[in-house]
Amino acid sequence: MRERFQPRVTVAAVIERDGRFLLVEEETSDGLRLNNPAGHLDPGEAPDQGCARETLEETAHRFTPTALVGVYLSRNVRPDGEDVTYMRFAFCGELGELEPDRPLDTGIVRTLWMTEKEIRASPERHRSPLLLRCLDDYLSGKRYPLSLVYTDASVYSTAVPLNRP
């Protein structure tokens, strides 16, 4: 019997200020790479909540998503042969205050503000091909209401889940 396909759900923030985009530089198995503030969706949270949490953890900035930029699928076959598909929900929104004493998430070396041109000039440093795709969609004006992604109340429940479709 074939194993059930289970993409890993991630969330990402596309944050622009004065023509520059907030990125993180992070340690990966391939060396230092650039990415949007991003990470895995945790149990018990909606995608926009996960994006706010990941942005805070990776940049020490509060972030309030105001629109969905897009939903993306990407596949990566790792050197050890593991075949992983990611489903990314990318949001744009309002960057809030910096918490200067907050440590950055494990693996995050620093945050960077880069121009579109600088980002495009460094594709070999991108952690994911979705970095450019999210940037392109943001720059082309793609914005969808947060209500497009519905999160049922059962997601927030700590009770034992019911067996129903």
β-strand percent reads 35-45%
Q: Averaged pLDDT, please? A: 93
Number of helices: 3
Cα radius of gyration in angstroms: 16 Å
Structural class by helix and strand composition: alpha+beta
Low-confidence stretches: none
| DSSP summary, beta strand count | 8
What percentage of residues falls in helices of 4 or more residues?
A: 10-25%
**Sheet bearing the most strands, described?**
4 strands, mixed
Span of the ends, CA to CA:
22 Å
Return the CATH architecture: Alpha-Beta Complex
Number of domains: 1
Looking at the structure, the CATH topology is Nucleoside Triphosphate Pyrophosphohydrolase
Task: Provide the spatial order of strands within the biggest beta sheet.
Answer: 5-1-7-6
Order of helices and strands: EEEEEHEEEHH
CATH superfamily: Nucleoside Triphosphate Pyrophosphohydrolase
Could you write a compact summary of the structure shown?
Helix content is 17%, strand content 41%. It contains 3 helices and 8 strands, in the order βββββαβββαα.
